[in-house]
Design brief:
By secondary structure, this protein is mainly α. It is built from 9 helices and no strands. Helix content is about 70%, strand content about 0%. Helix 1 runs parallel beside helix 4 and helix 7 (about 185-225) packs across helix 8 (about 235-250). It is globular, with a radius of gyration of 20 Å.
Length: about 260
Amino acid sequence: MELFIYIFSLIFGAVIGSFLNVCIYRIPANVSLWWPPSTCPRCKTKIKFYDNIPILSYLILRGKCRNCKEKISIQYPLIEAVTSLLTLLVVCNFGLTYWTAIALIITYSLIVLSMIDFKLYIIPDRFSIGLTVLGLLVFFINPAFSGDLKPKFIQCITGGAVGFFGLWAIALIGSMAFKKEAMGGGDIKLIAAVGTLTGFNGVISTLIISSFSALIYYAILFILKKNPENKTIPFGPFISIGLFINILIPNNLLLLY
C-alpha cells in the first residue's frame, strides 16, 4: 500500500508540475490558465494530449515540437521532475494527513513564485499574500506551533509580524546604506508568509538558509563570470528553499543555529 502511495505521489506530482509550467508562463502575462490550450510558440500548433505527458513526451520527442521541430525548453521536464520529487518528499514526511495537502499547496506555490521571480524579478501578491492568509487559516493544524489554539494563534501572528516588519527594517537600512533599493517588496511580503507558516524560529532559520544559499549561488556566478557587477539577484527562490526546509522540519534548532 505504501509503495502504491509513493508511486501515485510521483505521478501526481509530475502532472501538477505540468500545470505549474502553465502558471509560470501565464500568470505574469495575465493570461487565463485554462484557455487557450497549449500550443507551440513557433508554429502555433495545438499540442496533442499524447505530446503533453509529463517528462515522457519531452523524452519521446527529443525536446522538439513534433510539427516544426522547434526546441522545447528544458524547463518543462525539469519543473515536472522537481515537482514530482518534492511531492514524494512531502508525502513521505507527513503521510496522508490534512497537513500534507496544505504542505503540497505551499510547495507548489513556492515552485511557481520562484520561477517567476527568477525570470522576471517579481513575486506576484497572489502568492506572498495568499500564503500569508493560508498560514492564518490553518494555524490550528500547523505542526510548527505548539499548545492550545490561543498559543498557536499568537505564534502564527507573531511570526508574521516579526517577518514583515523585521525584514522591512533591514531593507530600509540597506537602502539607506547603499543608496538604492536593497530588497523588493515581494520578498518582504513573502517573509511575512514564512512567519505565519513557521513562526519566529522559522523566520530566522529561513533567512539564514536563504542568505547562505543566495551567497553560494552568487559565488558560482562570480566564478563562472556569468553575473555582471551589481546585477540584481532574485531572492524569492532562496526564501522558498528556506521555507520548504522549515515546512519539512519545523522547529529544528540545529537549522536555527
